Amino acid sequence: MMKGLCAIGLAALAAACAAPVGAGEAAFDPEVEARLAPEALARYAAPGKPVRYKALIEELKTPPERLGKPARNLRLPVRCFPDGRPQTLVFAEEAWVSPDMQRLRGRKVRMEHLRADGSVEATLEAEEAAMDRATMLAVAKGAVRATQEGDTLTGNGALADLEARYVKVLSRASITTQRMGEVDFANRGMF
User: Under DSSP, is residue 70 helix (H, G, I), strand (E, B) or coil?
Assistant: First the structure.
């Protein structure tokens, strides 16, 4: 589920979104790329295209003070199993929700992906985030933390495709796994 908004800042990321696809993309270190299977590279290339997140990035530029009074301690199901039980939940200490309930912006946000038995499979936490329930895309700024089955990814800012279960940390990425211990991917953008 886990992969890698913003030491470069929202303005720079928005500029990258306006650029043609392929322009300014973060590339893998050649040594790392040589060790990855082509299927792995293809699987993680599409969900991380910044242009897909442009509208959410623009929403995060609006100062929260201009959004009105926030809801407190929001708990909202984002996606459900066929029988109606929640599969993905979002929690936020402060949240602004669009009238159609499709767009959410929040502070101190936590998303949980649940297994069929109701136990937590993975989490994504952010200082501030915006998400679109229709497209299942999310953008975060500030400190982010993603966990799944003992693996933890931290950094600053993220792009997330919740349908593909993909998270891309944008700066200062670091991952701790049960298999490898701590590995530092700082300034790589994507791994």
Answer: coil
Compute the 3-state secondary structure of the chain and give helix, strand, coil in percent, each to the nearest 5. 20, 45, 35
Q: If we measure between CA atoms, which residue out of 113, 109, 96 comes closest to residue 143? A: 109
The dihedral over CA atoms of 130, 135, 136, 139, expressed in degrees to the nearest 10, equals -30
DSSP readout, the chain?
Answer: ------SS-HHHHHHHHHSPTTTT-----HHHHHHS-HHHHHHHHGGG-GGGGHHHHHHHHS-GGGS-SPEEEEEEEEEE-TTS-EEEEEEEEEEEE-TTS-EEEEEEEEEEEEPTTS-EEEEEEEEEEEEETTTTEEEEEEEEEEEETTEEEEEEEEEEETTTTEEEEEEEEEEEETTTEEEE-TT-S--
For the whole model, what pTM was predicted? 0.67
- Give the separation between CA 129 and CA 114, rounded to whole angstroms: 20
119-130 residue pLDDT tens: 999 999 999 999
- According to DSSP, the residues that pair with 72 across neighbouring strands are 94
